[in-house]
Amino acid sequence: MLPDQESLEKRSDPRYLARITICYEELLSEHSINISTGGVFIGSNVILPEDTELTVKLDLPNSAVPICTHARVAWVNDPDNIKKSSLPPGMGLQFLTLSKNAMHTIQTFLDSGDFALTW
To answer: Which pTM does this prediction carry?
Structure first.
């Protein structure tokens, strides 16, 4: 389900436009459109159902080791039913088991770049 505008405004973790490689379901690799310490939106034509849990691997340029965490599909931007026209088809993933260390690595990556803030 797409978060409504009010819940988007209440997000505690700002999202930043950033293109990083995201691997999931062991064989699938896509790129992020935006990311925060709470989740990531990936552009993809492979759409998994909402609430699907999966393991994702993020390859951040500032990290020698990929970040691996469990996530769930929080919402989808299905190509046949676009919910947010400013985004391509894909999925919004919510991180479920992100460690404090991994969260810090993501925040350091975002702080070190010239990324545009987006909600």
So the answer is: 0.84
